[in-house]
Write a structure and sequence with these properties.
Layout lengths: L4 H13 L2 H8 L3 H15 L4 E4 L2 E4 L1 H25 L7 E7 L1 H6 L1 H11 L3 E7 L2 H10 L4 E5 L9 E9 L1 E6 L12 H4 L3 E5 L4 H10 L6 E6 L2 H9 L5 E4 L13 E4 L8 E8 L6 H11 L5
Parallel strand pairs: 3-4, 3-5, 8-9
Antiparallel strand pairs: 1-2, 5-12, 6-12, 7-10, 7-11
Helix pairs in contact: 1-2, 1-3, 1-4, 2-3
Length: 299
C-alpha cells in the first residue's frame, strides 16, 4: 500500500470542506480528478472512507481515523521541506507568544513540537490568557503577538491580524441520533433538541448571534467551560451541540462515537490567526514565526 501526498491532501481538503466541488476548487483540480483519486485511496485502504448525502459527504469511522494520520503525514512533509529551505539557526533568542485556552489545548502541543524541531535555538516564552486580557497583553507589549480566535471577538482598528485558517462549525450528535437520518438539518430542527452549550473563548456571543438572526434560541440543557464534558454528553446522547471542526474528535474519552452534520443555515466559521498592534511593527523573528505557523497543518 502506498499513498501519495497528493491523495492525502485531497482527502484532508474534502474532510475540511465537506463537498467534492469545494475541495477540487481549493486544490485547483477538476472534480473528476479528485473523485478518481479518492476512489483509489478507498481501494488502497480496502475500506469506505466517506458517504454521500444531499449536502455533500460525511466521513465514516474509518475515514475519521485516516484523517488523523493524514494530517500528521502532511504536517511532517511540510516541516521537512521547511527544514531544508531555511537554516535552523535563523530564529534564536527570545520570542513572546500569547495564546488562548482553546488553542493551548488543540493547537499548541503539536505547534510547540514543530517549533522545537525546527528552531532549536529559539527561546519561546508563552502566555495563556482568555481573549480580552490576552488582547490587553498584546496592546501593552507583554507579547510580540498572540494567536487567537479572531472571529469570536471584535478587535479595534489599531490591530493587525492575519488569519491562518477558518474552521467550519457543524452539528455534533451521538451515533444513531434521529437527526442523522434527516436529508437536511436547520437550526429550527436543532432548537427542538436539548442543547449543550460550551462557554469558552467568547463562544457564547457567537452562538447568540447566529441563533438570534433566525429568531430562535437553543434549548440549553447544560452550560459548561469543559469541552470534554460537552463532548462526552453529546456522545452519550444527552444533547447536541454546534462546534467547529477544529475541536472535533470522533470519539469521547469514554470511547463513544460523535457524528458531525452540516446545518443549512449560515453559521460563521471559527477563524484562527495572529494579532499584533499596527503601531508596533513585527520584528523579523515574529514575522518569520507567523509565516512558519501559517504553513503548518495543525488543524
Amino acid at each position: 500500500m502506498s499513498f501519495t501526498l497528493r491523495q492525502l491532501e485531497f482527502f484532508v481538503t474534502l474532510a475540511d470542506t465537506g463537498q467534492i466541488s469545494k475541495a477540487a476548487l481549493r486544490c485547483n483540480v477538476s472534480q473528476s480528478s479528485m473523485t478518481v483519486s479518492l476512489k483509489n485511496l478507498e481501494e488502497q485502504c480496502e475500506r469506505q472512507l466517506f458517504t454521500r448525502h444531499a449536502k455533500g459527504i460525511r466521513l465514516t469511522s474509518e475515514g475519521e481515523r485516516l484523517l488523523r494520520h493524514a494530517r500528521q503525514i502532511l504536517n511532517s512533509a511540510q516541516l521537512a521541506v521547511a527544514d531544508v529551505r531555511m537554516p535552523s539557526n535563523e530564529l534564536q533568542g527570545p520570542l513572546r507568544l500569547g495564546v488562548t485556552e482553546t488553542l493551548s489545548a488543540y493547537m499548541l502541543p503539536t505547534l510547540l513540537s514543530d517549533i522545537a524541531a525546527r528552531f532549536p535555538s529559539l527561546e519561546l516564552e508563552l502566555l495563556e490568557l482568555p481573549s480580552t486580557p490576552l488582547f490587553q497583553a498584546v496592546e501593552n507589549g507583554d507579547v510580540d503577538f498572540a494567536i487567537m480566535l479572531i472571529s469570536n471577538i471584535t478587535l479595534p482598528k489599531r490591530c493587525e491580524t492575519e488569519i491562518f485558517f477558518r474552521s467550519t462549525r457543524r452539528l455534533w450528535t451521538c451515533a444513531g441520533h434521529p437527526l442523522q437520518n434527516a436529508p437536511t438539518i436547520t437550526l429550527k430542527d436543532v432548537a427542538q433538541e436539548d442543547y449543550l452549550l460550551l462557554d469558552m473563548d467568547d463562544h457564547i456571543p457567537i452562538v447568540n448571534s447566529y441563533w438570534g438572526k433566525q429568531g430562535l434560541n437553543p434549548k440549553v440543557k447544560f452550560e459548561s467551560r469543559s469541552i470534554e464534558a460537552v463532548r462526552s454528553m453529546v456522545a452519550l446522547g444527552l444533547g447536541v451541540t454546534i462546534l467547529s471542526d477544529f475541536v472535533y474528535r470522533a470519539w469521547s474519552l469514554e470511547g463513544n462515537r460523535i457524528i458531525r452534520r452540516d446545518v443549512s443555515n449560515v453559521i460563521p466559521s471559527m477563524d484562527i490567526g495572529a494579532v499584533w498592534m499596527k503601531d508596533r511593527p513585527l520584528s523579523g523573528q515574529a514575522r518569520m514565526m507567523i509565516d512558519f505557523i501559517r504553513d503548518q497543518r495543525i488543524y
